[in-house]
Model the fold of this input.
Amino acid sequence: MTPKDFIPIQEPKMISSGKVTWQSPSNIALVKYWGKKENQIPANPSISFTLNHCKSTTTLKFKKRKKTDDFAFNFFFEGKEKEDFKPKIEKFFERIESYCPYLKEYEFEIYSENSFPHSSGIASSASGMSAIALCLMSLEKELFPEIEEEYFNKKASFLARLGSGSASRSIAGGLVVWGTHENIEGSSDLFGEQFPYKVNKIFKNYQDTILLVDKGEKQVSSTVGHDLMHGHPFAAQRFQQAHDNLSKLVNVLESGDTSEFIKIVESEALSLHAMMMSSQPYFILMKPNTLEIINKIWVFRKETGIPVCFTLDAGANVHVLYPEDQKDNVLEFIKNELVVYCQNGQYICDQVGSGAKIL
Ligand code: DP6
Done:
């Protein structure tokens, strides 16, 4: 498919007003997206687990109006009008306007809330942007009722990507690939797609306990972070590494080999941080407690043989990943040994989920 395939060509139906609500999850990348080209095209393919509990619930109210040169919308976050989020949505609307030519013919009210604590350091752009994209697709489906489910989901992911790259991986459930990879059929730079091959049952309900180490404002926005990959001395090697790790992961996901899984996932997390440490300017996004946790996980794994591992986003929080049948053991370990490193003792228990839902 090409971007042109997402431009509507039929005549829209006349819809005067309506309302729709979507619940869309966050996701955690196993192979990381870090670096992008023009138009939100990723520099390398990535794959993530869709989460179950960390999600945004977003309602879009729309009312037909006389078209003007501007977008007309208000944004409410957790019940309060949020001006500082508006430029992000404005930019999103600008990026998607050619694919959603009806945008300026409506006025919108967008109401959003997250299931995870505000400013927990958990990126809400993936769940938030994918939820708005899905709401817009529901409007589009009313305008063009002939739209089929496959197109609906692809375009929702395509639009979400234009809001935030990782949001493209928050439409489908399970494991989602975004970015063209030579060994993954159907993979595309334009949208995320559910991982198309066999997945061992151990990975179907994998657990992710998110340890909130630092809930502060992000030190580096992901936009700035992605930019640091332009002219980065190790960029080409990093992009190749992501391709190679994804190739290896295809086999591991089928075989259920957790020790290989751990090697890939932890190396990806540390490589992402290594990129930030070796860019110009350079950043250290881990905190002392992030390292304490990583070391404790390594000791616990060695002593017990339990296949628990970590991954990181572009921040200090730690995602602890493990099979469901080890839940009791790992939660006990977390409570006894890791909670002391969390801010206010806070952590969130999540697991692989089934993707976005309309309410
Ligand atoms: C470290 O999707 O937040 O979480 O496209 O600029 O909105 P933008 O970036 P964003 O980047 C996420 C990067 C990451 C890794 C990942 O989720 O793959």
Observations:
- The mean pLDDT is 96.
